[in-house]
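pls design
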């Protein structure tokens, strides 16, 4: 049985959601799965834009067959060759053996690496800016290398000003019937996940996203159809996402605020971090965010670190080095190109080690990660007569912010 949505004349959503998927890319935890979006145009020529994960291909094939009926499938545009989107290409090609596969040279290189069927007779190789006509619609291809993978491209429906954006502007979470961002409370219920998706999946490639933006600024966009998450079709939603992506990809903090991230075994570092948070709050700082690296998946913490302008890390020595979970978090954070942030450090030791210089070396290896206050060193546990040290730390942090 099919489950499709008509978006406009000749344009259908034929995607599938998978609520059972526990982790995206087998690494990022999902609380309500993920959508694999796919779009089908039934102009004079028919054209499918991307496919879906092989786990949900049965539903997908039902969807396509329902919309196409007796019509052939003329084109399949491959905007992205990651298996969650290209995993049903062979199925589609079996059903529609004459389908023309539209991609760039890298698309077909990956297609041949991943799959066994020889589909080379069906290739239509496009370059940046090339167009094909479907009748009333013209599709223009905009190469978007590394807006996740090297072969990624976006497809622009010139007449209808629709951007098929591949992974860009995507999200975690299966859609609950409401296909459009304006049908849900996007800010309240979906924006945090959109950020977690972007920062962890594409965040490292900010420069490439900025390169794509140069192309997008030259066209008008009335609707964004991503491969995951909602469709953005109102001026406000398109602008919201363009603005967020501009901030995220230029590593500009979204908000002026403090996030505290710490590791702790016995709670002594945690207590100091709680004290710092209380004192910051008493001095007027609002919306403080705190995470224990052992209790929250890194993808959430990293996303929130990118959101905020200021961070305080609470670390400790563990077998003379940085506590392994903190070490792993910071490595992963730097891998997302975390930069342009102001930082304070709290370090707990009982007999010493390299945790603090290791952490400082990590920060120095990043771009524009500035320690704005002298590190606060604790020996095992804070004593009441040392509270003034915490007050001084907070005062200096705020004075230098
Ligand atoms: C397995 C283990 C290894 C440790 N290694 C070191 C070390 O090499 N150097 C040091 O100064 N403290 C070391 N410590 C002590 C901790 O840094 C110290 O207990 C600190 O107070 C822990 O903070 P917490 O109470 O927030 O967990 C170690 C503790 C544990 C449990
Ligand atoms: Fe991808
Ligand atoms: Fe994807």
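designed seq:
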């Amino acid at each position: 049985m099919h489950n499709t949505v008509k978006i406009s004349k000749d344009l259908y959503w034929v995607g599938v959601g998978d609520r059972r998927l526990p982790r995206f890319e087998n690494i990022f935890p999902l609380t309500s799965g993920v959508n694999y979006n796919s779009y089908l145009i039934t102009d004079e020529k028919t054209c499918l834009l991307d496919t879906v994960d092989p786990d949900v291909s049965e539903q997908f094939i039902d969807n396509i067959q329902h919309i196409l009926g007796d019509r052939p499938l003329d084109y399949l545009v491959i905007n992205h060759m990651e298996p969650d989107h290209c995993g049903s290409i062979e199925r589609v090609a079996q059903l529609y053996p004459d389908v023309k596969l539209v991609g760039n040279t890298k698309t077909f290189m990956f297609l041949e690496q991943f799959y066994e069927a020889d589909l080379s007779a069906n290739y239509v190789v496009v370059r940046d800016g090339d167009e094909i006509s479907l009748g009333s619609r013209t599709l223009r291809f905009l190469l978007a290398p590394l807006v996740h993978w090297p072969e990624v491209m976006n497809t622009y429906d010139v007449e209808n000003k629709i951007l098929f954006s591949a992974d860009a502007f995507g999200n975690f979470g299966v859609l609950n019937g409401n296909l459009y961002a304006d049908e849900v409370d996007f800010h309240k219920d979906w924006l945090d996940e959109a950020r977690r998706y972007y920062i962890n999946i594409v965040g490292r490639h900010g420069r490439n996203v900025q390169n794509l933006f140069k192309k997008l600024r030259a066209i008008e966009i009335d609707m964004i159809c991503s491969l995951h998450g909602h469709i953005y079709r109102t001026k406000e939603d398109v602008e919201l996402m363009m603005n967020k992506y501009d901030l995220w990809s230029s590593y500009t903090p979204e908000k002026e605020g403090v996030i505290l991230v710490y590791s702790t075994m016995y709670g002594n570092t945690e207590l100091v971090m709680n004290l710092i948070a209380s004192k910051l709050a008493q001095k007027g700082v609002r919306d403080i965010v705190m995470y224990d690296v052992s209790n929250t998946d890194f993808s959430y913490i990293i996303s929130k670190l990118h959101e905020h302008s200021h961070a305080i890390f609470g670390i400790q020595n563990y077998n003379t080095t940085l506590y392994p979970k903190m070490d792993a978090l910071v490595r992963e954070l730097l891998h997302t190109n975390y930069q342009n942030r102001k930082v304070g450090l709290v370090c707990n030791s009982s007999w010493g080690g390299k945790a603090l210089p290791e952490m400082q070396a990590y920060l120095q290896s990043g771009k524009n990660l500035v320690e704005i206050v002298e590190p606060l060193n604790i020996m095992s546990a804070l004593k009441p007569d040392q509270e003034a040290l915490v007050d001084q730390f907070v005062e200096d942090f705020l004075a230098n912010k």
